[in-house]
Every structure is written in structure tokens, then in C-alpha cells.
Fold Phospholipid/glycerol acyltransferase domain-containing protein.
Amino acid sequence: MLSKQKKSGVLKKITRGLTVGSVITGNTLVHGSPILALGLTKLIKQSKKIDETNVQITNNWLTVNNWLIDNILSETKWDIRIDPSLDLHLDGRYIMTSNHQSWVDTTVNQYFGRTRMPLTRFFTKWELIFIPFVGQAFKILGFPMMKRHTKSQIAKNPELKHRDMMEARKSCEQLLSQPFTLLNYVEGTRFTPEKHKQQKSPYAHLLKPKAGGLALALSILGSKIDALVDMTIVYPDGVPGYGEFWLGEVPRIVVHMRKIEIPDWILAGNYEEDREFRAKFYQWLSKCWKEKDELIDEIKKEYQNPTD
């Protein structure tokens, strides 16, 4: 038999799960439907006004989600640290890098950025377009969508590589018509101990960085952005699952933001065609990644050994 305390805890979790699930579903339907409807009109005529309206609708959707986080998940303690050199604005243009551990990371980004930065887009797989509401919304809102081809496919048809680059370039350039934050998960996948071991990663808390996506974004947008922003997310009590987060089972989340200076040689280089530039770029990125790894280590130690 469950004790009264345990029964109360189970009931609270069920109630919270139903409440959160219902609000998120309703919120997505209410805001997703007009985005899709307005998006269909873009098939007939491109319109900056429609793009701006869709962004506003999406921000309203995020506002409701953030209200849930602040009011239903009030037990979660947020430790947000912004480097003084980083000046963020809702009307800015930013490229952002981040470590990646969980599906929760994207929600953390949305929670942090809603009142501080323009709507965040990120590179997504083309296959996601077939997910109802979400996939179509990504396309309508200007998320750069990439078709991934294997090395063998590209070897048989080299044109595939150039076609993908052209599509990615077009998607990035379209962002310039409005404020934006373009997020790149540099590791290319979520961190797990298994992947870390398989890679033989030289970092304690990170996978090896992949340079291609960031190099592409910087080559297209680097001279036109306000800052290259680095977000570091740490879960001091262990990496949570998406369900755990929305059930309020994540005690603490640390978000650290800093500005990374972009060397002039990066903006003048050609990652695709210049082998020496690729090696130099990866060296630079590896240095940035080492600094991030050391920062994560410092934050983890700080929470393991609190001063108060």
C-alpha cells in the first residue's frame, strides 16, 4: 500500500502531467494553425508582413510555454549568467553555438531567448517537414532545412553536395530580412557517455565539434551579425529527459552566455575549397570548445562544492 505522502506525490505528478500536456497541445493547435494558414499564402506571394506576423504568433506560443515553466515548474531553479561583454537585443542578428545533451536544451534556449533575443532558428533535417504542424512550421518560419546525403551518394553524384550548399546558403540569406538568432549545435548530436567513448573525445564534457555548419553560417552571415554567441547549458543534477522537465523533476539549470570574437581571417576564408583554411578553422573551433569544456567543469565543481 502506498503511504498518503506517496499517493499525494503520484496524484500531483499526474495532475501536472495532464495540465502541462493539455496546455502545450492546445497552445500548439491555437498558434500552429494560423502559421500554417498564413504560410500557404506564401506559395502565391512572398510577403515580409506575413513573415513578421508568423514570427509574432510563434513568440506568443513561446510566451505561453514560458508561462508554464514559470508557474507550473516553479520548483526548477534557473541560474542564468550573461557575460558583461555580451549585449543582447530583440532586434539583433546573432549566430549562436551550444552544447547539446537533451531535447530539453531547445526549450531552455527558447525560455532564455524569448525576452532577450530574436526568434531562434536552427539547422534541421529535411525529413522533419513531414511531422504535422512542427515540420511545416519550421519551413514557413525560415529554419534552414538540410537534406543529408551519405558520402557514397555524393561520390556517385557530386552535384548533390553543391545543391545542398546552395539551399543552405539561400536559407541563411533569407534570414537577413529580419532580426534572427541562428543556433548551431556544433557537436551535431546529443552528448551521451557511449558517443563520448566511441569518439575518444579529448573533452571531458563534450563531443568533438563539427566545423562545417558553423563555417557555412559564418561565411554567409558573419559580416552581417551583431555577435557570435556561445551558450553553455549545465544540468548540475544530471541530464534530464523531456518528460522529466515538464513534470518539474529538474531541480537546477545553469545557462551561461558569452561572446566569441570572430577573427578577420575567418570572414575572408573559403571552408569548402581551402584545405589549409579548414584546418585552421578547426583549430580555432577546438580552442573555443576547450574553453567551453573547462567552463562546464568549473560550473559542475561549483555545484558539487557550494560555498553556502
Q: What stands out?
A: Residues 1-74 form one domain.
